[in-house]
Amino acid sequence: MGQHWLLSSKVKDMSLLDIAELTENQAFEYFCVQRWGSADNQICPQCGVIDSHYSRKNRRQWRCKHCDRYFSVTTNTVWADRKLPFKKMLFILFLFTSSPNGISASDLSRKAGVAYKTAWVFCHKLREAIYRSTDEAKYTGEIHIDGGHFGGKPRSGRFRNKAKPEAIADKIKLGKTQRAKRSRSSMANLARKKRNRRIVMVLREVVPGYGGVRTRCFLSRAEDEATARLIADQCIEPGSLVRTDESSAYISYAADFIHQTVEHSKEYSTLEGVNNNQAESYFSRLRRSEYGVFHRMMARYMIDYANEMAWREDHRRESEEQRLRDLLAKSTSIGLARWWRGYWQGIRRRNERLCSEC
Ligand SMILES: [Zn+2]
Question: Given strand 241-245, what is the order of strands in its sheet?
C-alpha cells in the first residue's frame, strides 16, 4: 500500500513558517499575483482595462490610466475595506485552509492575535466565497445522496439519565404504541431539537476508485420526497446512476435515474458493491467538526458550515498552497460580500437559506 497523501512531501509545499518569514510587501505582492496573475499589471475593477496603472505606492493603491478611478488589490472583493495587514490575512487564511475539520473563530482569534469578532467575520467571508462559487453544472455518472441530522443536540442536565424501574414498568404497561409521559426536561429537549435540528442533504459525484469529486449540500427541515425531488431536478442529469439508502424520500428517483439502494439497517454495502459511502464520508467530516471544533451550529449558519466541509472534502487531495490559492481566488472573484459586509455596523443575515426557499 502506498503512502498516505497527507504524509507525502508533495502536500507540504507551504507552511506557517513560510508566511511568518514574508515581509508585509511580499504578502501584498502575493495577493496581487493571486488576483491579477502578475505583480506588474493590474485590472481596473471599474473599466476592466489591464495595464500598468499609475501607482500610489504609500497607500498600496493605483489610479486607472483610462477612467481615473482609484483602486486597491481588495477593491470589489470580499476583503474590501479591510483593516488587517496582508501578512496577517495570509496567516489566518492558511490556518483556515490547513485545518482538516475547520477551525473555530475563538481558536483562530487566539492564534492570530485578533478580536473574536474579526476572526468570526473573516471565516464567514471565506464560507460565503465557497458558497457563492459553487459549481452549478448538473451531476452525471455515479452520484451518492443522503441526508444527515445536525444541530439541536439534547442537553443531559445535572443528573445521569438512568431509567427508573417505575418508568420501565410504565413503558411495559403502555406497550409499544403508547409513549410514557415525558419529564419536563425531556420536553424542553424535544422543543430544542425541533427548533434547532436541520437536515443537511448532500450529493456527491463519485469517480469509482477515487471517491467524491464534486459535492453540493442543501439545508432542509425534513428528509422527504419533496426535498429529494427538488434537489434531483436542480442538480442531476437524467439517466445518471444514483445511489441512496432505503429511505422512502428517494422513491420517485427510479422514474428518471438508474436508482440503486443499500439497506443501511442490514449492511453498509451490498455484495454487488452498491453503497452511498461517499455521502457518509462527507457526514463524518461534518459531524466531527460539529462535535469537535464548532460545538454548536446555529440553524441560520448551518449551510455555510456544510458548504465549507464540502469544499474540504473536494480539495482533500490538494497541497497546502493549492488549497490556499483556491480560496484566495474564490474570495477575490465573487465581488463584495453580500452577507457579511456591514456586520460590524449591525447588518445581519436574517434567513437560514433552506433549499425550499432558495
Ligand atoms: Zn479604469
Answer: 211-220, 198-207, 142-150, 241-245, 258-262
Predicted local distance difference test score (pLDDT) of residue 165: 85
Say how many Å lie between the CA of residue 234 and the centre of ligand 1.
38
Query: 62 alpha carbon to ligand 1 midpoint, in Å?
Result: 10
- 66 Cα: distance to centroid of ligand 1 (angstroms): 5
Where are the extended beta strands (E) located within 15-139? 42-43, 50-51, 54-56, 61-63, 70-72
- Is residue 172 domain-resident? yes
Whole-model pTM?
A: 0.90
Q: Is residue 2 part of a domain?
A: no
Same domain, 72 and 118: yes
- pLDDT value of position 242: 96
User: Residue 219's domain is classified under what CATH number?
Assistant: 3.30.420.10
Ligand 1 center to residue 35 CA distance, Å? 16
Q: What is the pLDDT of residues 175-231, one digit of tens each?
A: 766 666 777 777 888 888 888 899 999 999 999 989 999 999 999 999 999 999 999
The boundaries of the domain holding residue 179 are 166-196
Assigned domain for 3 exists:
no
